[in-house]
Amino acid sequence: MRLLELKVPPVGVVATVAALAWYVDQFAVLQWSESRLGAILWSAAGVFVAMAGLWSFARARTSVNPHRPGNASSLVTWGIYRVTRNPMYFGMLMVLIGWALFLGGALPLFATGLFIPFMNRFQIEPEERVMAELFGDQFEQYVATVRRWV
Predict the structure, then answer these.
(1) Do 39 and 101 meet the contact criterion of CB atoms below 8 Å apart?
(2) Whose CA is closest to 139, among 72, 88, 94, 51?
(3) In a structure prediction context, what are the per-residue pLDDT tens digits for the chain, which is 150 residues long?
């Protein structure tokens, strides 16, 4: 399935999963008393995490283009990248979880769970293959010490 590798913009995946979460929420039989404030705060934290990743890339003056990981000029391993190898994607996941919490149903949370395997297979794994080619042992050492998500 290399056809989808590095082809779908991560923001497009987020929008699709968010729409799916909203759609399946229409059929939810299991609801809970949602905390709108908690959901908003969780999503805001996700935006902060993603922006911290973007800021680190900007500070390192390297490419943030998810379709062309080969354009990376440096391997960013400091800041938020000491905690997670993919803070931008992790932040997007946090926003999706916040959205699911805002909707207040179990089905939206299950729909949100689709984000991780899709991103792992079609975005992160291809990016990591390119990073291994570009940065060799330095990247392998980084992978050995920092988790993909958290």
Answers:
(1) yes
(2) 72
(3) 688 899 999 999 999 999 999 999 888 766 666 678 999 999 999 999 999 999 999 999 999 999 999 999 999 999 999 999 999 999 999 999 999 999 987 889 999 999 999 999 999 999 999 999 999 999 999 999 999 999
Please check whether residue 93 is in contact with residue 42, taking contact to mean a CB–CB distance below 8 angstroms.
no
Query: Which residues, in sequence order, are CB contacts of 59 under 8 Å at separation 6+?
Result: 79
Q: How far apart are CA 113 and CA 110, in angstroms?
A: 5
What 3-state DSSP class applies to 75? coil
pTM of the model: 0.93
